[in-house]
Amino acid sequence: MKAITHDRFGGPDVLTLSELPQPTVGERDVLVRVRAASVSYGDYHYLTGTPLLGRIGFGLRGPRVPVRGTDLAGVVEAVGAQVTGFRPGDEVFGWCKGAFAEYAMGTEDTLLPKPANASFEQAAAVPSSGMTALQGLDKAKVRAGQRVLILGAGGGVGTFAVQIAKARGAWVTGVCSTSKVALVEKLGADQVIDYTRGDPLRTDQPYDVIVDLAGSRPVPKLRAALAPAGTLLFAGGEGGGRIVGDLSRSVPAALRSMFSRQRLLPFVSLPRKPDLASLAELIEAGKLTPVVGQTYPLARTADAFRDLVARRANGKLVITG
User: Fold this and answer.
1) Helix (H, G, I), strand (E, B), or coil: what is residue 237?
2) For all residues of the chain together, what is the average pLDDT?
3) 147-151 and 16-19: which strand pairing?
4) Residue 245 pLDDT
5) Can you tell me whether residue 232 is helix, strand or coil?
6) Strands 147-151 and 111-113
7) 146 by DSSP, 3-state: which?
8) Residue 274 CB coordination number (10 Å)
9) Do 233 and 211 meet the contact criterion of CB atoms below 8 Å apart?
C-alpha cells in the first residue's frame, strides 16, 4: 500500500511517499480503507519532534511510528475475530496511528459510524480538532448567556469552537484574519473581528471566557479583557519555547494567577470516544458542520503541512485518496 513516511524529524521535506505492506489484522483490530485523513498541529509536532519534551512519546532519536496521521474516515476493509461492532463495508471515522496511507488500523474503541450527513472529508476533519474544541469549552464551563472570545476562530479548532459555543447559547466573538472573516460570520459568530484592522482585546464589556488558540498575545493583555471571575483557556497556541512549547507561557501564567478570581487554564485534549460521539450527534442534528478548507492527494501531504504552518487553512486541511 502507499503511505507517507519519514525516518527522521524535520519539516515537510522529510516526508516520502512509500510502498509498505498492508497492516495485518489482529483479533481486536479494524482495518480501514482510508478515504480521507486530516492534518493537525499534533501531526506537525510528531513530524518535527517538537517541543523536545514530546520526544518522550514521539521517539528520542527518530520517529517511533514512521507513518503520520491520526484522524481518518473511510470504509471498513476487514475486522478481527473478536470485533463485534463493525463489519466490512461500514463507513467509519475516528483516530488511529498512520492515517496518511491507503489503509490504517483502528479498534472499536477509536472508531464510530460516520454521520450520514457528513462527507468522508468532513468526518475526517472532526476527531482531533473537534475534541479539542469540545473538551476545551467543557473545561472552561461555557454556558448560555456568556460572552466568549475565540482567538483563531477561522482555523481547524476555531471553526468547531465557534459552532459549539453558539450551540450552547453563548454570545461569541470570533477573531481571525481578513481572508477568514466571511467564513466565521457564516459559522454564526455574533461578532467577527479582523485582527489586522482592530484590537479584539480593547473592549468596554469584558469576556467571561477567552479561548486562546493563537498563542500570540501577551497574557496580561488577555487578562485585562477578561471579566474579574472569567476564564482564560490556553488551547493549542503554537508559541512558547522549543523545549516545552506553549506550556512555557501558559503554566507560569496559571501559577501566577492562583490567588486571583480569574481562572487561567493550560489545556491539552485527549482522544475520548464519548466526546467523539457527542460531536457526531451535533453533526447529525445539524448544529455542527465540519469546515474543510482544502483537499490534497496523498502524494501532496507535504504541501498540506506547509499550508498548515503558513496558516493558509480556512478550517481543516484534508488528505484524500
Assistant:
1) coil
2) 91
3) unpaired
4) 45
5) strand
6) unpaired
7) coil
8) 7
9) yes
